[in-house]
Design a protein that fits this description.
The termini are far apart. This protein has one domain: Nuclear Transport Factor 2, Chain: A, CATH 3.10.450.50. A six-stranded mixed beta sheet has the order 2-1-6-5-4-3. β4 and β5 form a beta hairpin. 26% of the residues are buried. The protein is an alpha+beta fold. The protein has six helices and six strands; from the N terminus they run ααββαββββααα. The radius of gyration is 15 Å and the shape is globular.
């Protein structure tokens, strides 16, 4: 197994334990993260998101939390993985199974400098939001509303942590 595949494995092992410090050890300071909801630049923003998600899961849904990573592959520059997240969405209390494909880029030191997660937003929104997700999850309007709320929640979380 390539050492960068080990980095991906360590990242998901830490995430499975809701250990943001273990996750942070896998990222470079200039990491970029993008998914269907977040577009974050720099380790402070990216780790703010993971800390917020880990804290919310520990507080409200630890009993429902499970992460399964598979298909981990990497070479000296890129990597990929598939991961399934089983959790209780804190905003609605609804159970979610989110199936995610991740792509990574590494720096020469073996740290992640780019992390892109892709998932079916409509499938996620149907589970997480119920009827509104079913009816509107395919629309840019709902996607933008979720992005705005997530960005707002992250700003509030990060402000609270720096006070």
């Amino acid at each position: 197994m390539h050492p960068n595949a080990d980095t991906i494995t360590k990242f998901y092992a830490a995430f499975a334990q809701l250990d943001p410090e273990g996750m942070a050890a896998c990222y470079a300071d200039d990491v970029c993260f993008d998914d269907e909801v977040f577009s974050l630049r720099g380790k402070a923003q990216v780790m703010g998101m993971w800390r917020m998600l880990c804290e919310a899961t520990r507080a409200k849904g630890r009993d429902d939390w499970k992460l399964e990573a598979s298909g981990i592959e990497a070479d000296e520059k890129t990597g990929r993985a598939h991961w399934d997240a089983h959790y209780r969405f804190s905003a609605t209390g609804r159970l979610v199974l989110n199936r995610i494909d991740a792509a990574f880029t590494f720096n020469p030191q073996g740290l992640i400098v780019a992390h892109r997660d892709r998932f079916n937003f409509w499938a996620w929104s149907r589970q997480a939001l119920g009827a509104p997700g079913l009816l509107l999850g395919w629309t840019p309007m709902l996607r933008n509303k979720v992005k705005q709320q997530a960005a707002h929640n992250l700003r509030k979380f990060m402000e609270r942590k720096t006070q």
